[in-house]
Amino acid sequence: MKLVQQVAIVTGATQGIGLACAQRLIAEGASVMLVDIKPEGEQAAAALGPQACFFTADVSQKADVDALLAATLARFGRIDILVNNAGITHAADFLDLSEDDFDRVIRINLKSMFLCGQAVAREMVKQRSGCIINMSSVNATLAIPNQVPYVVSKGGINQLTKVMALNLAPHGVRVNGIGPGTILTELAKQAVLSSPEARHTILSRTPLGRCGEPEEVAGIAAFLASADATYMTGQTIYVDGGRLALNYTVPVME
Question: Which residues form the signal peptide (predicted)?
Fold first, then answer.
């Protein structure tokens, strides 16, 4: 186990990639504060055992983030790892997208990472150590026409990761990102795997010929949080089945 006596916060942790990250960090010995706006996180934390705790918060709101920080310190005494994972999508063509929907996605996907990252980093700087992991996407560089604010938010996350890493490096705090391709989560099923035709399109752009599993992303998070990655900061690792390297389509095995 590589994360014994470490304390982690994972946002957006009730399902999908966030839950898988919490499970993997606990398997590596960490104690984890699961965070979500959905109260069913209580059940998720209970299923993970005594190393897990749950806190209900809207991480796009500073007051909630401050309360989360206080609760984590009260429960565990320190913070070593932050997995900034909370995120949503909203499908609409550019000409039809409302200002409110644009703002909502940017607030939850991007502003939350600034708020959580800043709050946690202030504690990590005192410790002279820590690791922050921002969940980005291949859509930080690629784009889906009807996912305007999602794509914009992920591009912003990549730059936020870099500027955080540069600012915090002198204090011994590392900041990296993970850019998943299409992972088999409820979010992906709703956004880009909603029909056989959509699935065919995704797989035709994925050289490994399949979608990823949340556990495969969680493995990268555990690596970045561990001593194996102590000379890495400011990087985004793409867990995408080869999609970003591909300049054509591949046959799909039905």
Answer: none
Give me the phi and psi of 94, to 5 degrees please.
-55, -45
pLDDT, tens only, 63-108: 999 999 999 999 999 999 999 999 999 999 999 999 999 999 999 9
CA 232 vs CA 61, 94, 135: distances in Å: 30, 37, 16
Q: What is the pLDDT of residues 7-17, one digit of tens each?
A: 999 999 999 99
Non-local (6+) Cβ contacts of 22 within 8 A are 8, 10, 13, 32, 34, 44, 48, 52, 83
Q: How many helices (H) and strands (E) does the chain have?
A: 9, 7
Q: What is the pTM of this model?
A: 0.96
Residues marked as catalytic: 150
Its CATH class, for the domain covering 7-184+213-244, is: alpha beta
